[in-house]
From TrEMBL:
Transmembrane segments: none annotated. This is Enoyl-CoA hydratase. It comes from the Bacteria. Gene3D superfamilies: 3.30.300.220. Signal peptide: none annotated. GO terms for molecular function: catalytic activity. It holds the Pfam family ECH_1.
């Protein structure tokens, strides 16, 4: 889930006790799934924090969960 210092993370991992929220974070693109976002999401799901959770909630930032696949 690495990014450069100037980039926002593509997936935000928000632990809340036994529940973890994975928030897609490409609001300018309505959280459309790019290859990079898909990889970051897989990395997040495989992380220790998420593995220890009893429940995972998938959410989108801003006004949309996801616009679908980003073809650009």
């Amino acid at each position: 889930m690495s990014t450069t210092d100037t980039e926002e993370p593509l997936v935000l991992v928000e632990p809340h006790g036994d529940v973890v929220v994975l928030r897609l974070n490409r609001p300018a693109k309505m959280n459309a799934l790019s290859l990079a976002l898909e990889q970051h999401l897989l990395d997040a799901v495989r992380s220790d924090v998420v593995s220890a959770a009893r429940a995972i909630v998938f959410a989108g930032s801003a006004r949309a969960f996801s616009a679908g696949t980003d073809t650009h």
